[in-house]
From TrEMBL:
Alphabetized InterPro entries for the sequence: 5'-Nucleotdase_C, 5'-Nucleotdase_C_sf, 5_nucleotidase/apyrase
SUPFAM superfamilies: 5'-nucleotidase (syn. UDP-sugar hydrolase), C-terminal domain
Gene3D superfamilies named among the record's database cross-references: 5'-Nucleotidase, C-terminal domain
Top-level taxon of origin: Bacteria
Protein name: 5'-Nucleotidase C-terminal domain-containing protein
Domain 5'-Nucleotidase C-terminal per the UniProt entry, residue ranges: 1-124
GO molecular function: 5'-nucleotidase activity; UDP-sugar diphosphatase activity
Any GO BP: nucleotide catabolic process
PANTHER family: 5'-NUCLEOTIDASE, 5'-NUCLEOTIDASE-RELATED
Coiled-coil zones: none
Amino acid sequence: MNPGGIRSDLVYAASGSEGDGVVTYGEAFTVQPFTNMMNVVDLTGARLIAALQQQVSGSNEASPKILQVSQGLTYTLDMTKSGAARLVVGSVRLNGVAIDPAASYRVAMNEFLAGGGDGFPALGQGTNKLVGASDLDLFNAYLAAHSSPAAPLAPPATNRITIIK
């Protein structure tokens, strides 16, 4: 998810009478109101690494745009360096396995990012594009499938991205 597409925090504490951890449709809409269509594309490991470098280089160097990545993808940004060198390339891993620059990875993102928006041209180079439902509909379906008022979804660990300052 691109940081510009997230318009509000999604907090665990109840904002009304619904109880802690329960997310209403209105809260979900407030977080991501653009209803972008989700795209799934094939990216080489090299293009995935380039996209992660683009968070902190080029048009995003002065004001980094940190992508919100899925569980399993981890990496380190060293903000004491400049440009693309801020990404510690050897730290980029999927489920603990180093990203292979020559391998192909199936990556989901919203249509804005799939078009190279927000200074991420590497994401616009994906192939075999599949267009699905809106991000808001999929987010709500995920919440419905993985939580209930009696068993709300707990916030995940925030150990996907390590930032060295």
